[in-house]
Amino acid sequence: MSAEFEGEVGHLRERFREQQEAFEAEVNALEIELPEPPEAESPEDPLEDQWMYDSARDFTWQTEVFRRAQKRD
Predict the structure, then answer these.
(1) pLDDT tens digit sequence for 21-63
(2) What are the CA-CA distances from residue 49 to residues 31, 40, 43, 54 (Å)?
(3) Which of 37, 68, 34 is nearest to 52 (CA)?
(4) Can you say how many angstroms the Cα of residue 7 is from the centroid of all Cα atoms in its chain?
């Protein structure tokens, strides 16, 4: 490599480092406040304790339970 090429690359590396430092300084100065996530609300439902899926049910019975659950919403 020629000395001229190495000098140009060195200059570009220095500019890149300066830009990187400036960018990092700006990012570190940002103050981002995220809102607290809302807490989940539990519906007052008499079937709340029951699982929607129960492996003891056959397909037809399980499908009926699922359809009823959809209609309650």
Answers:
(1) 999 999 999 988 889 988 877 666 555 556 677 778 888 988 8
(2) 43, 16, 11, 12
(3) 68
(4) 44
| Burial track 39-55 (b if 16+ CB lie within 10 A, e otherwise) | eeeeeeeeeeeeeeeee
The answer, as to whether pTM is greater than 0.70, is no
> Is there a contact between 65 and 72 (Cβ–Cβ < 8 Å)?
no
Written as one letter, the residue type at 34 is L
How many residues in the chain? 73
Write the CB contacts of 53 (distance below 8 Å, at least 6 apart in sequence): 62
Q: Which amino acid is at 72?
A: R
